[in-house]
User: What shape does this take?
Amino acid sequence: MLQNENYNTDLIEPCNDECSFCFLNYTDVLGKNSLFRGLSKGEIGEIIRSVHHQSKAYSKGEVVANEGDNYDRLILIVKGAVVGEMMDFEGKVLRVEQRSAPETVAIAFIFGNNNRLPVTITAVEETRLLFIPRDDLVKLFSGNKIVLSNFLDNMADRAQFLSRHLRMLGLHSIRGKIAHYLLEQVKLQGSTDIRMPHTQAALSEMFGVARPSVARVLRDMNNASIIESRGKNIRIINTEELSTMLS
Assistant: This one.
């Protein structure tokens, strides 16, 4: 189980006097979680009633779980956001990604022979998490094909994301990393006019480089008419030039 000392391991059945979490307060956010796609709010309520669970609030900067912890339960964000970070061999902290309500956390690592967290999970704002133990998930899958299908879709999506992210980290130059990121946003947003979903500070943590380096590369790209930057809005002018930076 998760080893963080702030983590309460007491899992309880819902709808009793000792339960501090009421799914009725979070039906909207749970209804938007991809795990429950295709289910009504009433059906989601029945699912929460049927499984052991725990809910816990975290303040900004509080660690939820540490890198290397055994990950034996699913984490759903019902309020706020968390970030996953890891340390490389040089001692640099790399931000893998940030997840916000109504998303799930580290879904690709809950099953397997070595299901240990590869990252440290930390709240980046006031956050509330819902925990469902792995054994209850298995029971839920056996009785609800919609949830099982959604979970498998989530697993596939996460594997594809990790593959893309590893490819980006493997690009040695900062220019290559930023070029890959911009081209990925063009693909995700379906337009060469993109809105940056991350700040420069977040990008520097994601790439494991200094923030001024990110700002310098974006400025150089703008001056070279490869991109046209207007704050968080960026127009990609020369995709071919960006592609050459990936080699």
